[in-house]
Amino acid sequence: MRDELHVFHVRSSAGLYGAEYVILGLIPALASLGIGSTLLCLDNQHCADQPLAAAAQRLQIPYQRVPCRGRFDPATVAALRRVLRRDAALLHVHDYKSAAHAWLARGRRDVPIVATSHGQFASSARLHLYHRLERALMRRFDRVCAVSEAMRPLLLRAGVAAARIALIENGIDTGRFSAAAVPLQRGEFGIAGDALLFGSAMRLTEQKNPLGLIDAFAQVARAIPNAALVLAGDGPLRAPVLARAAAHGVADRLHLIGARDDLERFYTMLDVFVLPSLYEGLPLALLEAMAAERRLVVTGVGQVAAVLDGLDVTPVPPGDAPALARAMIEAGRMPAATMPALRERVVERFSLARMAAAYAALYRDVRRCRERAAA
Q: What's the Cα-to-Cα distance from 45 to each of 48, 63, 69, 237, rounded to whole Å?
């Protein structure tokens, strides 16, 4: 028997990044548990196309595009109100813009709201203000989900009641990401077959620290003659990354291959996966590389240390390029082998099925609480 509850996931997106992939994986997994969902994609006026809506269509995930022509758009509120006429609806918001529009759209209707804080990392005064407003709204939501324990103190300081905060860690498709995935062909990108290949999947932004990675790799290249570095992803720091590599004399050993939709094959092409981020919540790229059993070099940010607790991987301090370089050299000199213990940790704790089950239980608990309050 199907669950009568229907969840509307609301997301304003400028591309396909970690939070988007979480949502795209979560909705089909929820369906297998009897919870129907619709993805409401708020249009981004800066994007000629709408990548999240396009991905939902490609994956045959129920979705609707919702007009949104700026930071606040009354037409967006009106469109969401029309959607919310459906009975037994629950709103699940995934960013500050979605939270604000959904809150206004709900009005006086008795529609529960759940929010997931995927990581509030403000790179400007404007974003800092938006995140403060989002946290203020979260005080009024039925539940607020954090993807890492490190986010809990921030939510508590913002006035979110402890009883309303739930830790639900990200999950990935462990069938898709595995050591069995056929690797991309190195020659396609001009990478030598015998290279000791370091790599990362990242958006080229300050948070992900690609410039610090280039600084560290310059030291690695001097110590390991056949070392090469490949980055999957794009972003505003692409040109500075190329310039930094040229300044270090390693431009011919750096390969930028752009955004990929076949990352399961990217990871298995690597010898060592590197996560050089300055700050994170719970990065999907780390979980994906672990599921692919790659050797790891990571910074101790967000939930990373908790994910790796008890495993033979020691995180390095964020922003410390020499420490990152030393860890990369050490990992590169390890015997070539897969790391099955890393995959076991992901399968046990960070699977897509586990994440979906946690959200399903939370939605049903929210509905039960609402029903008891109305009785």
A: 8, 18, 6, 22
Q: In whole numbers, what is the pLDDT of the chain averaged over residues?
A: 92
Neighbour count for residue 157 (Cβ, 10 Å):
9
| 258 φ, ψ (degrees, to nearest 5) | 75, 180
Predicted confidence (pLDDT) at residue 49 exceeds the cutoff of 90: no
Percent of the chain with pLDDT over 90: 78
Cα–Cα dist 325/219, whole Å: 6
Task: State the Cα–Cα distance between residues 15 and 10, nearest whole angstrom.
Answer: 15
Q: Which amino acid is at 337?
A: A
> Which amino acid appears at position 310 of this protein?
G
Per the model's pLDDT, the better-predicted residue between 5 and 287 turns out to be 287
* CA separation for the pair 345, 204 (Å, rounded): 28
Split at pLDDT 50, 70, 90, the class of 290 is very high
Among 115-124, 283-292, 315-324, where is mean pLDDT lowest? 115-124
Domain with CATH 3.40.50.2000 in the chain: 6-171+351-374, 186-349
Q: How far apart are alpha carbons 316 and 327 in whole angstroms? A: 8
Q: What are 319's two structure tokens?
A: 């922003």
Q: Which amino acid is at 141?
A: F
Instruction: For the chain, give the number of residues.
Output: 375
Q: Which of 1.10.10.10, 3.40.50.720, 3.40.50.2000, 3.40.50.1010 is the CATH number of 6-171+351-374? A: 3.40.50.2000
**Residue pointed to by tokens 């919702």:** 66
Q: Percentage of residues in the chain with pLDDT exceeding 70?
A: 95
Classify 29 as helix, strand or coil.
helix
Name the strand (E) or helix (H) holding 24: helix 18-31
| 3-state SS class at 355 | helix
Pair 242, 256: CB distance under 8 Å: yes
Q: What would the pLDDT profile of 150-163 be if each residue is shown by its tens digit?
A: 889 989 999 999 99
Q: What dotted CATH number matches 186-349? A: 3.40.50.2000
pTM: 0.88
Q: Assess whether pLDDT exceeds 80 at residue 281.
A: yes
Strand partners, 127: none
Dist. CA 278–CA 321, nearest whole Å: 11
